[in-house]
Write a structure and sequence with these properties.
The chain is mainly α. The protein contains 20 helices and no strands. The longest helix is centred in the middle third of the chain and has 56 residues.
Length: 534
């Protein structure tokens, strides 16, 4: 009987705990969605980021600089230090850096509602433009001149990726193990069947191990230095005390002679065997026991007993349950009656085709969700894994079409990850485009909201920072693997290699927008192929 009562009480306490946690989570979400104090109205955020998503060409750092100009200098919504927090957080999380920065800015200014409005308004223009380009690609790809221009676009993207790898390599690889880890990550992605998730996990574990080893070595060195300093200080103090004592003894020579005089006398025969008690030395007096030592020990014992007095646990509430209201039966019958006229039309639909398309959309969404969860360093890093799943595993498109989609993602405003819209539309129409786009941006959005709500804890977490320290150099290797993957499908002629080299040099030396370089390379490819430039 007692066991049943205890089981019932434990179940009740667990239900109460889960109910309290759910209530706290619901209140927190409600406070974040509609915060009491918002620095900026959500409509102003939607208008500003929609305009930025329409004009934000270049991707990555170029878009982040435009966000900084808008938020810090024009609108004055954030300070320079707050925006630097947004940039550092955006670069530390997977997904598109520009979208992550936009999410944090909206979260900082207007809570979760502001984050949702900001990122949707920022992505929507590029989403619509990509839909238009995808529709146009199906018609323009039949013309030879359009194919030549697309080939120039692909070659330019390969050159831009190579330039990005060169720039990041100078900043991200500061130590020998950074270089080795980056080369190993690129080698695994190029020559083996290792996935991006596995590379990121391996790099993060290596980073944690190295940072732990370095931290432990630093602690040992600090402890050794501290012990040496304490020993040297102790030696100096003892030496000073000895010198001071010797100086005092030398200054008082007479006192020294009197204190250390040795007297010898024979015992007195008249004494009844009483021995003379030795005179204690003044220099080294005999210590006398303190009369209050026993009392002090008792007091200390009493105090320690009072200090270690055990605390009794506080009992909580038991059996807090609440029944949810049930829907009336009349409402259920009304719903079924409302659906009766549509039942014949539902049976006439081709269920097999619909289920096949839904299954394809689900697979597509899971591919981009999985890749978006573990991909650090921007949209270009996702290229090898997406190409493997889309082109080689499922065979939904060929390599040339995939390379064209990556070029479209570079010439459209907003993040490069909007290529998910192109692939989704090619595979499953508008529904596939919407599902792929949401799945690609959703993981980084959730992570940014969670990390942004506790930014200081995210910064000071040793495991998180050590994991990111290992992932950062591996991103360079993953970018190199992305360039090699695109070069295999986009560089087929000596002219394409020349155009890619030209784009690489222009990206490193000339201060031009990447969109201008891509369009220029496409025109050069077309003109040389037509014989206009010989």
């Amino acid at each position: 009987m007692n066991e049943k009562v205890e089981i019932t009480e434990s179940k009740s306490s667990l239900i109460a705990m889960f109910a309290g946690s759910f209530r706290w989570l619901r209140e927190w979400v409600a406070s974040q969605i509609a915060p009491a104090e918002s620095a900026v109205e959500w409509r102003a955020l939607a208008k500003a980021f929609f305009r930025l998503g329409t004009t934000g060409f270049g991707g990555g750092i170029a878009v982040i600089s435009q966000i900084r100009r808008l938020v810090v200098h024009q609108k004055r919504w954030m300070t320079e230090e707050e925006f630097l927090d947004a940039v550092s957080l955006a670069q530390s999380l997977p997904g598109a850096n520009a979208a992550n920065a936009t999410t944090y800015v909206g979260l900082k200014l207007c809570g979760v509602r502001g984050a949702v409005v900001s990122v949707v308004s920022f992505i929507l223009p590029s989403f619509l433009m990509m839909i238009g380009l995808t529709i146009a690609h199906s018609y323009l790809y039949k013309f030879p001149d359009a194919q030549r221009i697309f080939q120039g676009f692909n070659a330019a993207v390969v050159g831009l990726i190579a330039a990005t790898v060169t720039k990041l390599g100078k900043t991200a690889m500061q130590q020998q193990w950074h270089l080795e880890l980056g080369v190993a990550a690129g080698f695994m992605l190029i020559f083996t069947t290792t996935t991006i998730a596995e590379v990121v996990l391996i790099a993060g574990v290596v980073g944690i191990f190295i940072q732990f080893y370095k931290t432990r070595a630093r602690q040992q060195i600090r402890q050794k230095i501290s012990k040496e300093r304490q020993a040297s200080v102790r030696e100096v103090v003892l030496e000073q005390q000895a010198r001071q004592h010797a100086a005092d003894l030398i200054e008082s020579k007479d006192k020294l002679a009197n204190e250390y005089k040795v007297e010898v006398s024979l015992p007195d025969k008249s004494a009844d065997g009483d021995k003379e008690e030795k005179r204690p030395s003044k220099a080294f007096p005999k210590p006398e026991p303190s009369p209050d030592s026993n009392d002090g020990d008792g007091a200390n014992a009493d105090h320690s007993e009072d200090h270690h007095e055990p605390f009794l646990p506080i009992a909580g509430k038991k059996g807090v349950t609440q029944k949810l209201p049930k829907l009336p039966n009349k409402l259920n019958s009304f719903v079924w009656l409302a659906l009766l006229p549509f039942l014949p039309a539902l049976f006439l639909l081709n269920w097999s085709a619909m289920l096949g398309k839904l299954l394809m959309v689900w697979k597509l969404a899971m591919i981009f969700f999985r890749v978006g969860t573990v991909t650090f360093g921007g949209g270009f890093v996702m290229i090898p894994q997406i190409e493997t799943d889309i082109v080689e595993v499922h065979r939904w498109m060929d390599h040339q079409t995939f390379a064209d989609g990556m070029a479209f993602g570079q010439i459209t405003p907003g993040p490069v990850l909007i290529t998910a819209t192109f692939i989704g539309y090619k595979v499953a129409g508008v529904l596939g485009a919407v599902a792929a786009t949401i799945a690609a941006f959703l993981p980084s959005f959730v992570m940014t909201v969670i990390a942004g709500a506790s930014l200081n804890r995210f910064r000071t977490n040793f495991l998180v920072q050590s994991f990111l320290a290992g992932v950062a150099p591996a991103v360079v290797g993953m970018l190199a693997a992305a360039g090699v993957s695109l070069a295999r499908s986009g560089l087929n002629t000596p002219l394409s290699f020349g155009v890619a080299t030209m784009a690489f040099l222009l990206m490193l030396r000339a201060k031009l927008n990447p969109v201008v370089i891509i369009f220029g390379c496409g025109l050069v490819q077309w003109a040389v192929a037509r014989g206009l430039i010989g």
